[in-house]
Amino acid sequence: MRLLMLTLAALPVLAEEWTVFRLGPFEVVTQNEQKSARVVMNHLEQVRHAFGQTVGQAELKARWPIRITVGGKTTSELVIDRDAYTATIAKNAAVPDQWNRALAEIFLNDGLARMPEPFERGLVDFFSTLNVDGVRVIAGAAPPKPTLDWARVHLLMVSDRYRGRLRTLLFNLQKGNAPAPSYKNAFERTEAELEAEAKAYFAAGQFATTSLNSKPINAERDFMARAWNPAKKVESAMDAFDRGDFAAAVRIKPDWPAAKVKLALVTPEPRKTQLLREAANDAQRNPEYWRFLAEHLAANKEYGEAYKAWGAAERASRDEAERAKMHMARLALENAKLDFEDAERQRKKDEEARELERIKNDSLRNIRMAEAAANEKLGGPGGAPKAEAWWEDPKNEATVTGTLERVDCTAGRMTLVLRDAAKKSVRVNLPGDAAKLKLKGEAGATFVCGPVAKPMRLKVTYAKPPKPGQVTLGDATVIEFVK
Fold it and tell me: Which domain holds residue 108?
Protein backbone atom coordinates (compact mmCIF):
# COMPACT_ATOMS: atom_id res chain seq x y z
CA MET A 1 0.00 0.00 0.00
CA ARG A 2 2.79 2.42 0.85
CA LEU A 3 4.52 1.55 -2.40
CA LEU A 4 1.33 2.34 -4.30
CA MET A 5 1.01 5.68 -2.55
CA LEU A 6 4.60 6.57 -3.38
CA THR A 7 4.04 5.62 -6.99
CA LEU A 8 0.92 7.83 -7.26
CA ALA A 9 2.70 10.70 -5.59
CA ALA A 10 5.48 10.45 -8.13
CA LEU A 11 3.08 10.88 -11.10
CA PRO A 12 3.07 14.40 -12.63
CA VAL A 13 0.00 16.53 -11.89
CA LEU A 14 -1.95 16.97 -15.16
CA ALA A 15 -2.52 20.61 -16.05
CA GLU A 16 -6.11 21.70 -16.26
CA GLU A 17 -7.44 22.30 -19.78
CA TRP A 18 -7.75 25.82 -21.15
CA THR A 19 -11.23 27.24 -21.50
CA VAL A 20 -12.59 30.25 -23.35
CA PHE A 21 -15.63 32.48 -22.81
CA ARG A 22 -16.88 34.32 -25.90
CA LEU A 23 -19.34 37.18 -26.25
CA GLY A 24 -19.44 39.84 -28.96
CA PRO A 25 -15.83 40.83 -29.77
CA PHE A 26 -14.51 39.44 -26.47
CA GLU A 27 -12.62 36.22 -25.79
CA VAL A 28 -11.60 35.58 -22.17
CA VAL A 29 -9.30 32.54 -21.84
CA THR A 30 -8.00 30.86 -18.71
CA GLN A 31 -6.44 27.63 -17.59
CA ASN A 32 -7.82 27.32 -14.08
CA GLU A 33 -9.52 30.60 -13.10
CA GLN A 34 -13.02 30.34 -14.54
CA LYS A 35 -14.69 32.34 -11.76
CA SER A 36 -12.28 35.23 -12.21
CA ALA A 37 -12.65 34.94 -15.99
CA ARG A 38 -16.42 35.37 -15.72
CA VAL A 39 -15.93 38.53 -13.65
CA VAL A 40 -13.60 39.94 -16.30
CA MET A 41 -16.03 39.07 -19.11
CA ASN A 42 -18.86 40.77 -17.23
CA HIS A 43 -16.77 43.92 -16.84
CA LEU A 44 -15.89 44.03 -20.54
CA GLU A 45 -19.47 43.49 -21.68
CA GLN A 46 -20.87 46.09 -19.26
CA VAL A 47 -18.41 48.67 -20.61
CA ARG A 48 -19.45 47.84 -24.18
CA HIS A 49 -23.14 48.02 -23.28
CA ALA A 50 -22.84 51.35 -21.43
CA PHE A 51 -20.75 52.93 -24.18
CA GLY A 52 -23.17 51.70 -26.87
CA GLN A 53 -26.13 53.12 -24.95
CA THR A 54 -24.38 56.49 -24.77
CA VAL A 55 -23.53 56.77 -28.48
CA GLY A 56 -26.78 55.24 -29.75
CA GLN A 57 -25.38 51.91 -31.00
CA ALA A 58 -26.91 48.70 -29.67
CA GLU A 59 -24.08 46.31 -30.62
CA LEU A 60 -20.65 47.91 -30.76
CA LYS A 61 -18.03 45.98 -32.73
CA ALA A 62 -14.25 45.76 -32.79
CA ARG A 63 -12.21 45.17 -35.93
CA TRP A 64 -10.24 42.39 -34.22
CA PRO A 65 -11.15 40.04 -31.36
CA ILE A 66 -10.28 41.33 -27.87
CA ARG A 67 -8.60 38.38 -26.17
CA ILE A 68 -7.91 38.57 -22.43
CA THR A 69 -5.92 35.88 -20.63
CA VAL A 70 -6.86 35.47 -16.96
CA GLY A 71 -3.95 34.17 -14.85
CA GLY A 72 -0.51 35.71 -14.83
CA LYS A 73 0.81 39.22 -14.46
CA THR A 74 -1.55 42.05 -15.35
CA THR A 75 -0.50 44.02 -18.42
CA SER A 76 -1.33 47.69 -18.54
CA GLU A 77 -2.27 47.94 -22.20
CA LEU A 78 -4.32 46.17 -24.87
CA VAL A 79 -1.97 45.50 -27.79
CA ILE A 80 -2.61 44.13 -31.27
CA ASP A 81 -0.90 40.76 -31.66
CA ARG A 82 -1.48 38.53 -34.71
CA ASP A 83 -5.10 39.24 -35.54
CA ALA A 84 -6.32 40.11 -32.01
CA TYR A 85 -6.07 42.73 -29.28
CA THR A 86 -4.48 40.94 -26.33
CA ALA A 87 -3.79 41.52 -22.63
CA THR A 88 -3.30 39.53 -19.44
CA ILE A 89 -4.82 40.02 -16.00
CA ALA A 90 -4.03 38.41 -12.68
CA LYS A 91 -6.56 36.34 -10.74
CA ASN A 92 -9.12 38.53 -8.92
CA ALA A 93 -7.38 41.71 -10.11
CA ALA A 94 -9.43 44.82 -10.97
CA VAL A 95 -9.60 45.71 -14.65
CA PRO A 96 -7.17 48.63 -15.19
CA ASP A 97 -8.54 52.04 -16.17
CA GLN A 98 -6.23 51.92 -19.19
CA TRP A 99 -8.25 48.97 -20.51
CA ASN A 100 -11.48 50.94 -20.16
CA ARG A 101 -9.87 53.77 -22.12
CA ALA A 102 -8.59 51.37 -24.77
CA LEU A 103 -12.03 49.78 -25.17
CA ALA A 104 -13.67 53.18 -25.67
CA GLU A 105 -11.06 54.10 -28.31
CA ILE A 106 -11.49 50.75 -30.10
CA PHE A 107 -15.27 51.13 -30.24
CA LEU A 108 -14.93 54.70 -31.52
CA ASN A 109 -12.39 53.88 -34.22
CA ASP A 110 -13.76 50.53 -35.39
CA GLY A 111 -17.51 51.07 -35.46
CA LEU A 112 -18.60 54.71 -35.28
CA ALA A 113 -18.69 57.67 -37.62
CA ARG A 114 -16.83 60.85 -36.75
CA MET A 115 -18.12 63.12 -34.03
CA PRO A 116 -16.67 66.47 -32.91
CA GLU A 117 -13.24 65.78 -31.44
CA PRO A 118 -13.96 67.40 -28.02
CA PHE A 119 -16.83 64.95 -27.51
CA GLU A 120 -14.71 61.96 -28.51
CA ARG A 121 -11.93 62.95 -26.11
CA GLY A 122 -14.47 63.56 -23.34
CA LEU A 123 -16.14 60.18 -23.89
CA VAL A 124 -12.84 58.30 -23.68
CA ASP A 125 -11.91 60.13 -20.45
CA PHE A 126 -15.36 59.61 -18.94
CA PHE A 127 -15.45 55.85 -19.62
CA SER A 128 -11.85 55.31 -18.53
CA THR A 129 -12.92 55.47 -14.87
CA LEU A 130 -16.00 53.27 -15.18
CA ASN A 131 -16.44 50.89 -12.24
CA VAL A 132 -18.30 47.60 -12.65
CA ASP A 133 -19.51 45.59 -9.67
CA GLY A 134 -21.72 42.75 -10.89
CA VAL A 135 -24.64 44.45 -12.60
CA ARG A 136 -23.90 47.84 -11.02
CA VAL A 137 -22.10 50.23 -13.35
CA ILE A 138 -20.84 53.40 -11.65
CA ALA A 139 -19.62 56.32 -13.77
CA GLY A 140 -18.41 59.83 -13.11
CA ALA A 141 -15.21 59.38 -11.11
CA ALA A 142 -12.69 62.01 -12.16
CA PRO A 143 -9.63 60.92 -14.16
CA PRO A 144 -6.15 61.89 -12.90
CA LYS A 145 -6.23 65.09 -14.97
CA PRO A 146 -9.81 66.30 -15.58
CA THR A 147 -10.35 68.46 -18.66
CA LEU A 148 -13.16 70.62 -20.00
CA ASP A 149 -13.92 67.90 -22.55
CA TRP A 150 -14.39 65.37 -19.73
CA ALA A 151 -16.47 67.85 -17.68
CA ARG A 152 -18.75 68.55 -20.64
CA VAL A 153 -19.56 64.84 -21.01
CA HIS A 154 -19.82 64.49 -17.21
CA LEU A 155 -22.40 67.28 -17.11
CA LEU A 156 -24.51 65.67 -19.81
CA MET A 157 -24.22 62.15 -18.39
CA VAL A 158 -24.61 62.81 -14.65
CA SER A 159 -26.81 65.88 -14.15
CA ASP A 160 -30.53 65.26 -13.76
CA ARG A 161 -31.27 67.96 -16.31
CA TYR A 162 -29.50 66.23 -19.21
CA ARG A 163 -29.22 62.58 -18.17
CA GLY A 164 -30.01 60.20 -21.06
CA ARG A 165 -30.14 62.93 -23.71
CA LEU A 166 -26.52 62.92 -24.86
CA ARG A 167 -27.13 59.91 -27.10
CA THR A 168 -29.60 61.95 -29.19
CA LEU A 169 -26.98 64.60 -29.87
CA LEU A 170 -24.22 62.10 -30.64
CA PHE A 171 -26.46 60.04 -32.91
CA ASN A 172 -27.36 63.12 -34.98
CA LEU A 173 -23.75 64.30 -35.17
CA GLN A 174 -22.64 60.86 -36.40
CA LYS A 175 -25.18 61.18 -39.22
CA GLY A 176 -23.53 64.42 -40.33
CA ASN A 177 -26.43 66.62 -39.24
CA ALA A 178 -25.70 70.27 -38.56
CA PRO A 179 -24.81 71.10 -34.92
CA ALA A 180 -27.47 73.80 -34.41
CA PRO A 181 -30.58 71.61 -34.95
CA SER A 182 -28.81 68.65 -33.30
CA TYR A 183 -28.28 70.60 -30.04
CA LYS A 184 -31.81 72.01 -30.20
CA ASN A 185 -33.29 68.56 -30.71
CA ALA A 186 -31.31 66.96 -27.88
CA PHE A 187 -31.27 69.69 -25.21
CA GLU A 188 -33.56 72.51 -26.39
CA ARG A 189 -30.53 74.76 -26.01
CA THR A 190 -27.94 76.24 -28.37
CA GLU A 191 -24.38 74.98 -28.56
CA ALA A 192 -23.11 78.29 -27.17
CA GLU A 193 -25.46 78.13 -24.18
CA LEU A 194 -24.44 74.59 -23.35
CA GLU A 195 -20.74 75.39 -23.73
CA ALA A 196 -21.03 78.28 -21.29
CA GLU A 197 -22.75 75.99 -18.80
CA ALA A 198 -20.05 73.31 -19.23
CA LYS A 199 -17.29 75.84 -18.50
CA ALA A 200 -19.04 77.00 -15.33
CA TYR A 201 -19.61 73.38 -14.31
CA PHE A 202 -15.92 72.58 -14.82
CA ALA A 203 -14.84 75.62 -12.82
CA ALA A 204 -17.09 74.68 -9.90
CA GLY A 205 -15.33 71.31 -9.55
CA GLN A 206 -18.26 69.44 -7.95
CA PHE A 207 -18.42 66.10 -9.75
CA ALA A 208 -20.74 63.37 -8.47
CA THR A 209 -20.95 59.78 -9.65
CA THR A 210 -24.01 58.07 -11.06
CA SER A 211 -25.28 54.62 -11.95
CA LEU A 212 -25.59 53.83 -15.65
CA ASN A 213 -28.08 51.49 -17.26
CA SER A 214 -26.45 48.06 -17.05
CA LYS A 215 -26.97 44.86 -18.98
CA PRO A 216 -28.78 42.11 -17.03
CA ILE A 217 -26.14 39.38 -16.88
CA ASN A 218 -25.90 36.22 -14.82
CA ALA A 219 -22.23 35.32 -15.16
CA GLU A 220 -22.72 31.65 -14.26
CA ARG A 221 -25.65 31.20 -16.65
CA ASP A 222 -24.78 33.53 -19.56
CA PHE A 223 -21.05 32.83 -19.90
CA MET A 224 -20.51 29.25 -21.01
CA ALA A 225 -16.98 27.83 -20.92
CA ARG A 226 -15.70 26.10 -24.05
CA ALA A 227 -12.52 24.08 -24.52
CA TRP A 228 -9.69 26.11 -26.02
CA ASN A 229 -6.34 25.00 -27.38
CA PRO A 230 -3.75 27.80 -27.25
CA ALA A 231 -1.42 25.77 -29.44
CA LYS A 232 -3.94 25.44 -32.28
CA LYS A 233 -2.80 27.35 -35.31
CA VAL A 234 -5.34 29.27 -37.38
CA GLU A 235 -4.96 31.18 -40.60
CA SER A 236 -3.73 34.71 -40.01
CA ALA A 237 -5.20 37.56 -42.06
CA MET A 238 -2.23 39.73 -41.16
CA ASP A 239 0.24 37.08 -42.33
CA ALA A 240 -1.61 36.80 -45.65
CA PHE A 241 -1.62 40.59 -45.96
CA ASP A 242 2.12 40.81 -45.27
CA ARG A 243 2.93 38.29 -48.01
CA GLY A 244 0.73 40.18 -50.49
CA ASP A 245 -2.10 37.64 -50.67
CA PHE A 246 -4.87 40.19 -50.26
CA ALA A 247 -7.59 37.85 -51.52
CA ALA A 248 -6.75 35.42 -48.70
CA ALA A 249 -6.63 38.28 -46.18
CA VAL A 250 -10.16 39.35 -47.19
CA ARG A 251 -11.39 35.75 -47.10
CA ILE A 252 -10.05 35.29 -43.56
CA LYS A 253 -11.08 38.77 -42.38
CA PRO A 254 -14.03 39.92 -44.52
CA ASP A 255 -14.47 43.24 -42.66
CA TRP A 256 -10.84 44.40 -42.93
CA PRO A 257 -10.87 47.65 -44.96
CA ALA A 258 -7.09 47.82 -45.59
CA ALA A 259 -7.10 44.38 -47.21
CA LYS A 260 -10.12 45.28 -49.36
CA VAL A 261 -8.45 48.45 -50.66
CA LYS A 262 -5.29 46.54 -51.57
CA LEU A 263 -7.32 43.83 -53.28
CA ALA A 264 -9.35 46.44 -55.20
CA LEU A 265 -6.16 47.77 -56.82
CA VAL A 266 -5.64 44.44 -58.62
CA THR A 267 -9.31 43.55 -59.24
CA PRO A 268 -11.35 44.43 -62.38
CA GLU A 269 -14.85 45.89 -62.40
CA PRO A 270 -17.48 45.54 -61.08
CA ARG A 271 -15.86 43.85 -58.08
CA LYS A 272 -13.37 46.72 -57.77
CA THR A 273 -16.06 49.30 -57.06
CA GLN A 274 -17.77 46.93 -54.63
CA LEU A 275 -14.54 46.42 -52.65
CA LEU A 276 -13.82 50.16 -52.44
CA ARG A 277 -17.37 50.87 -51.35
CA GLU A 278 -17.25 48.17 -48.65
CA ALA A 279 -13.86 49.38 -47.39
CA ALA A 280 -15.10 52.96 -47.03
CA ASN A 281 -18.24 51.88 -45.18
CA ASP A 282 -16.29 49.49 -42.93
CA ALA A 283 -13.87 52.30 -42.01
CA GLN A 284 -16.24 55.26 -41.76
CA ARG A 285 -13.61 57.42 -40.06
CA ASN A 286 -10.90 56.96 -42.70
CA PRO A 287 -11.00 59.91 -45.14
CA GLU A 288 -8.48 58.27 -47.49
CA TYR A 289 -10.75 55.31 -48.20
CA TRP A 290 -13.66 57.66 -48.95
CA ARG A 291 -11.36 59.68 -51.23
CA PHE A 292 -10.33 56.50 -53.12
CA LEU A 293 -13.99 55.66 -53.61
CA ALA A 294 -14.97 59.20 -54.66
CA GLU A 295 -12.21 59.45 -57.27
CA HIS A 296 -13.00 56.00 -58.63
CA LEU A 297 -16.73 56.71 -58.92
CA ALA A 298 -16.05 60.05 -60.63
CA ALA A 299 -13.79 58.33 -63.15
CA ASN A 300 -16.68 55.95 -63.89
CA LYS A 301 -19.00 58.98 -64.32
CA GLU A 302 -21.10 57.93 -61.30
CA TYR A 303 -21.19 61.56 -60.24
CA GLY A 304 -24.09 61.34 -57.81
CA GLU A 305 -22.44 58.58 -55.76
CA ALA A 306 -19.03 60.24 -56.03
CA TYR A 307 -20.52 63.46 -54.65
CA LYS A 308 -21.80 61.56 -51.59
CA ALA A 309 -18.43 59.87 -51.10
CA TRP A 310 -16.62 63.24 -51.12
CA GLY A 311 -19.06 64.45 -48.47
CA ALA A 312 -18.28 61.41 -46.30
CA ALA A 313 -14.54 61.99 -46.79
CA GLU A 314 -14.92 65.60 -45.69
CA ARG A 315 -16.83 64.60 -42.55
CA ALA A 316 -14.26 61.91 -41.69
CA SER A 317 -11.23 64.19 -41.93
CA ARG A 318 -9.76 65.90 -38.88
CA ASP A 319 -7.37 68.09 -40.86
CA GLU A 320 -8.86 71.49 -41.75
CA ALA A 321 -6.63 71.97 -44.82
CA GLU A 322 -7.55 68.49 -46.04
CA ARG A 323 -11.24 69.16 -45.40
CA ALA A 324 -11.01 72.36 -47.47
CA LYS A 325 -9.46 70.46 -50.40
CA MET A 326 -12.15 67.80 -50.21
CA HIS A 327 -14.84 70.45 -50.11
CA MET A 328 -13.44 72.05 -53.27
CA ALA A 329 -13.25 68.64 -54.96
CA ARG A 330 -16.89 68.08 -54.06
CA LEU A 331 -17.93 71.43 -55.54
CA ALA A 332 -15.94 70.74 -58.71
CA LEU A 333 -17.61 67.36 -58.97
CA GLU A 334 -21.01 68.99 -58.67
CA ASN A 335 -20.20 71.09 -61.76
CA ALA A 336 -19.00 67.99 -63.61
CA LYS A 337 -22.21 66.22 -62.56
CA LEU A 338 -24.37 69.04 -63.95
CA ASP A 339 -22.36 69.10 -67.23
CA PHE A 340 -22.72 65.35 -67.56
CA GLU A 341 -26.47 65.49 -66.94
CA ASP A 342 -26.81 68.27 -69.55
CA ALA A 343 -24.84 66.19 -72.04
CA GLU A 344 -27.00 63.15 -71.30
CA ARG A 345 -30.20 65.14 -71.83
CA GLN A 346 -28.88 66.48 -75.14
CA ARG A 347 -27.82 62.99 -76.22
CA LYS A 348 -31.30 61.63 -75.54
CA LYS A 349 -32.90 64.55 -77.40
CA ASP A 350 -30.62 63.87 -80.38
CA GLU A 351 -31.51 60.18 -80.32
CA GLU A 352 -35.22 61.01 -80.20
CA ALA A 353 -34.82 63.46 -83.08
CA ARG A 354 -33.00 60.86 -85.16
CA GLU A 355 -35.69 58.28 -84.40
CA LEU A 356 -38.43 60.74 -85.37
CA GLU A 357 -36.63 61.54 -88.62
CA ARG A 358 -36.30 57.84 -89.38
CA ILE A 359 -40.04 57.35 -88.81
CA LYS A 360 -40.82 60.30 -91.11
CA ASN A 361 -38.52 58.99 -93.83
CA ASP A 362 -39.98 55.49 -93.57
CA SER A 363 -43.51 56.89 -93.80
CA LEU A 364 -42.66 59.08 -96.78
CA ARG A 365 -41.02 56.14 -98.50
CA ASN A 366 -44.15 54.06 -97.96
CA ILE A 367 -46.33 56.82 -99.41
CA ARG A 368 -44.06 57.20 -102.47
CA MET A 369 -44.21 53.50 -103.01
CA ALA A 370 -48.00 53.66 -102.81
CA GLU A 371 -48.04 56.52 -105.33
CA ALA A 372 -45.75 54.60 -107.65
CA ALA A 373 -47.97 51.54 -107.39
CA ALA A 374 -51.05 53.63 -108.10
CA ASN A 375 -49.42 55.34 -111.12
CA GLU A 376 -48.32 52.00 -112.46
CA LYS A 377 -51.88 50.71 -112.31
CA LEU A 378 -53.07 53.86 -114.13
CA GLY A 379 -50.47 53.37 -116.87
CA GLY A 380 -48.06 55.98 -115.58
CA PRO A 381 -48.19 59.79 -116.04
CA GLY A 382 -49.57 60.61 -119.52
CA GLY A 383 -50.18 56.97 -120.42
CA ALA A 384 -53.36 55.13 -121.17
CA PRO A 385 -55.08 53.80 -118.11
CA LYS A 386 -54.65 50.13 -117.56
CA ALA A 387 -57.66 47.95 -117.39
CA GLU A 388 -58.56 47.31 -113.79
CA ALA A 389 -60.62 44.48 -112.44
CA TRP A 390 -63.97 45.43 -110.97
CA TRP A 391 -63.44 46.22 -107.29
CA GLU A 392 -66.03 46.25 -104.60
CA ASP A 393 -65.58 47.36 -101.00
CA PRO A 394 -65.17 44.30 -98.78
CA LYS A 395 -67.84 43.91 -96.18
CA ASN A 396 -65.37 44.62 -93.38
CA GLU A 397 -64.56 48.13 -94.62
CA ALA A 398 -66.08 51.42 -93.55
CA THR A 399 -65.64 55.10 -94.38
CA VAL A 400 -65.11 58.21 -92.29
CA THR A 401 -64.93 61.81 -93.50
CA GLY A 402 -63.31 64.52 -91.43
CA THR A 403 -60.66 67.20 -91.10
CA LEU A 404 -57.07 66.01 -90.64
CA GLU A 405 -55.63 67.72 -87.52
CA ARG A 406 -52.33 65.92 -86.96
CA VAL A 407 -50.27 62.83 -87.76
CA ASP A 408 -48.95 60.72 -84.85
CA CYS A 409 -45.80 58.69 -85.39
CA THR A 410 -45.14 55.92 -82.86
CA ALA A 411 -43.48 52.52 -83.05
CA GLY A 412 -42.65 53.04 -86.73
CA ARG A 413 -46.27 53.67 -87.79
CA MET A 414 -48.22 56.75 -88.80
CA THR A 415 -51.73 57.42 -87.53
CA LEU A 416 -54.08 60.04 -88.96
CA VAL A 417 -56.08 61.96 -86.37
CA LEU A 418 -59.28 63.45 -87.84
CA ARG A 419 -62.19 65.48 -86.50
CA ASP A 420 -65.38 63.92 -87.99
CA ALA A 421 -68.73 65.56 -88.73
CA ALA A 422 -69.84 65.02 -85.13
CA LYS A 423 -66.71 66.91 -83.90
CA LYS A 424 -65.39 63.66 -82.51
CA SER A 425 -61.68 62.82 -82.74
CA VAL A 426 -61.03 59.56 -84.59
CA ARG A 427 -57.80 57.76 -85.49
CA VAL A 428 -56.95 55.72 -88.57
CA ASN A 429 -53.63 53.94 -89.14
CA LEU A 430 -51.74 54.10 -92.40
CA PRO A 431 -50.94 50.54 -93.49
CA GLY A 432 -47.42 49.22 -92.99
CA ASP A 433 -47.46 47.97 -96.61
CA ALA A 434 -47.72 51.00 -98.91
CA ALA A 435 -49.08 48.85 -101.75
CA LYS A 436 -52.30 48.41 -99.75
CA LEU A 437 -53.09 52.15 -99.80
CA LYS A 438 -54.84 54.06 -102.65
CA LEU A 439 -54.67 57.86 -102.85
CA LYS A 440 -57.31 59.89 -104.72
CA GLY A 441 -57.54 63.56 -105.53
CA GLU A 442 -54.01 64.83 -104.65
CA ALA A 443 -51.12 63.56 -106.71
CA GLY A 444 -47.86 63.61 -104.79
CA ALA A 445 -49.52 64.33 -101.44
CA THR A 446 -47.50 63.43 -98.33
CA PHE A 447 -48.17 63.14 -94.63
CA VAL A 448 -45.69 64.55 -92.08
CA CYS A 449 -45.56 63.70 -88.38
CA GLY A 450 -47.01 66.36 -86.10
CA PRO A 451 -49.79 68.94 -86.27
CA VAL A 452 -51.08 69.79 -89.75
CA ALA A 453 -50.18 73.36 -90.72
CA LYS A 454 -53.18 73.61 -93.08
CA PRO A 455 -56.13 71.35 -92.12
CA MET A 456 -57.45 69.29 -95.01
CA ARG A 457 -60.63 67.32 -95.57
CA LEU A 458 -60.20 63.60 -96.11
CA LYS A 459 -62.50 60.75 -96.88
CA VAL A 460 -60.84 57.66 -95.54
CA THR A 461 -61.89 54.12 -96.25
CA TYR A 462 -60.48 51.71 -93.70
CA ALA A 463 -60.49 48.03 -92.93
CA LYS A 464 -62.22 47.42 -89.62
CA PRO A 465 -60.19 45.34 -87.18
CA PRO A 466 -61.41 41.79 -86.52
CA LYS A 467 -61.82 42.60 -82.81
CA PRO A 468 -63.69 45.77 -81.77
CA GLY A 469 -62.52 48.07 -78.97
CA GLN A 470 -59.15 49.10 -80.41
CA VAL A 471 -57.86 52.66 -80.14
CA THR A 472 -57.93 53.21 -83.92
CA LEU A 473 -60.76 52.56 -86.36
CA GLY A 474 -58.46 50.36 -88.46
CA ASP A 475 -55.95 50.53 -91.32
CA ALA A 476 -56.65 52.92 -94.20
CA THR A 477 -57.12 51.36 -97.65
CA VAL A 478 -58.22 54.44 -99.61
CA ILE A 479 -57.61 58.13 -98.86
CA GLU A 480 -59.53 60.67 -100.93
CA PHE A 481 -58.76 64.38 -100.68
CA VAL A 482 -62.07 66.22 -100.77
CA LYS A 483 -62.75 69.94 -101.28
Answer: 19-221
